[in-house]
Amino acid sequence: MRRLLIIFILTILFSRAFGQKTETKVPNATKERRASPNRIRAAEGDKTKDSILRHFMHEIEVIMQSKNIANSTIIALKNKSDSLSFKFNSYQSENKKVSLYHFAKGFYHLNYITKQQNDIANKIILRDHKMHTYFTEVHTLNAEEFLLLERQDDMSFSCNYATVYEIKEDLLFKKKAFKQGTQLTVCSWTTVDTSYPTLEESTVVLKGGLTHYEPVKIAYTFKTKNISYAFYHQTDGRLTKRKAKYKKEKFRIDDYDVRSLLD
């Protein structure tokens, strides 16, 4: 109970420190561009009241958009993250044009996507700051499109997401690239209570406890342009594998959410 109370208090503090996530529609677009409901704002400022964190965000954004010489960007971001005890991860697309940066502290995440503008600098095209959910991988689909993989962790389950983005003149669009719309969702249990009652000397005793599982992850293979994931059925243990090739601007693959299988 004390641990849950601490988590609740930290959640309230982070909620007050940060504004809402920055994925919003772009205002003042041309008539042609306004017709697309899936356009998002490429880079939006954060409304944080924490001056130290605001200064940290400003510094990492300057580094991200600077010229990367001999991997200097990654080294500088790693050093800056260590100075404030942030965990840092990065990922680069196969064509080296799009880069992913992820900074984490506790359960809050700062996510960025940059695009190489020329040989001199990069530009932040997607900025996303929120709790529990973070960017994990970015992959090249073609010269104008990339695939973004994200993960959301909760206390007992994990969800992985895939989204296709298109870049047009530095504007970013979510594409309806999946059967369900703009996003593929794969959710699975990571912690399950497997305890059971047993009778010992006329006394009911609980045996077992919490069982932990690896989350079902979404994978992408660049050479074949296939997206895939696999899961075991809870009822009979059968393994099901699903995959789809990016063809005609679509991945024809179903979502999977283990929670929807509950009675």
Explain what you see.
With 263 residues, this protein is α+β, with helices and mostly antiparallel strands. Helix 3 (51-64) runs antiparallel to helix 4. Strands 1, 6, 7, 8, 9, 10 and 18 form a seven-stranded mixed sheet that branches. A four-stranded antiparallel sheet has the order 2-3-4-5, with helices on one face. Helix content is 17%, strand content 42%. The two termini are 28 Å apart. The model is unreliable at 1-10 and 12-35 (pLDDT under 50). The radius of gyration is 21 Å and the shape is flat. The chain has four helices and 18 strands.
Oligomer: single chain
Question: Which strand-content bin applies to the residues?
Answer: 35-45%
Order of helices and strands: HHEHHEEEEEEEEEEEEEEEEE
Number of strands: 18
Shape: flat
Tell me the radius of gyration: 21 Å
- Structure class: alpha+beta
How many helical elements? 4
Characteristic key phrases:
single chain, 263 residues, alpha+beta, seven-stranded mixed β-sheet, four-stranded antiparallel β-sheet, 4 helices, 18 strands
In summary, what is this structure?
The protein has 263 residues and is of the alpha+beta class.
Write the layout of secondary structure elements.
Layout: H1 2-17, H2 31-34, E1 39-40, H3 51-64, H4 72-83, E2 87-92, E3 98-105, E4 108-116, E5 122-131, E6 133-140, E7 145-153, E8 157-168, E9 171-174, E10 183-189, E11 191-193, E12 196-200, E13 203-207, E14 210-212, E15 219-221, E16 226-232, E17 239-245, E18 256-257
Parallel strand pairs: 10-18
Antiparallel strand pairs: 1-9, 2-3, 3-4, 4-5, 6-7, 7-8, 8-9, 8-10, 11-14, 12-13, 15-16, 16-17
